[in-house]
Amino acid sequence: MARHLTHLTHLLALTAGLLLAGAGAAHAQQPAGFAAAKARGELVVGVPYLAPLPVAGAKIRTPHGLDANMAEKLGLSLGLPVRLQQVPADEAGARLAAGDVDVVLADRESTQPPTVAVQPTGYRTRPKAVIRSDTTLRKPADVRGRSVCMAEAASDTRALAESWGAVVRTYRVPSDALVAVREGACDVGLVDDAVWEPLVRFPEWKKFSSTLEPDGAPRERVWLLPAADTAGRAWLASEMKAWNQSGAWKAMTAKWARDVAFDVYLDQEVPDCHG
Question: Which keywords are on file for this protein (predicted)?
Fold first, then answer.
């Protein structure tokens, strides 16, 4: 019995040693930079648009774009929970300097002061149309005077549709705009081209898989962070390289399309018990 107890003690000691070694290795691999976020225990990410929280009993729906997904993935890499704040690109420098946010998502075209570093993501999109396949709409000129619907967060998309002479209608979330298209209340829905293909692959979207000729320049999402955080900048550059190599964008766009398709299904097929 004593020999068995001794053996068990050795096994427990070995297991504890391995756990401590693993914890030490994990600590050693903790990304450099983002000191304020680590001290706070939370990564605060600025995004161009943050939908108001739904009122009690209201439907929770997928927001426009991948900003929330990108922020969540970055938080996972840092081992931190994420909180989103609405930060327009022209306020990013001041909000970063004040420590209100740790990093901001914006379009590459936004002009920033020297105190702000810009880290490209490699994720580029432009608007793409979702149209019933039995229509004759094929060119942007064809939608002059027609209704074009999108999420209210898609400000660049709205400007493009207005340049076509379309009658623009905005909705709180993308699924609301797409439901309008499916129900015939809107002629064209606009989403990002990166999420269009995984969306129209679903069987229920086959009848809505027509689109318009491409228009508008692609826009790239970038991270903005303090230029003084050299360690954070180096780590973020490495992280974006890893995302591109691992197919992270394809995974995120596929998830977005799946979530929005489900939102539309709930809106069209499942009665809303909240009225």
Answer: Signal
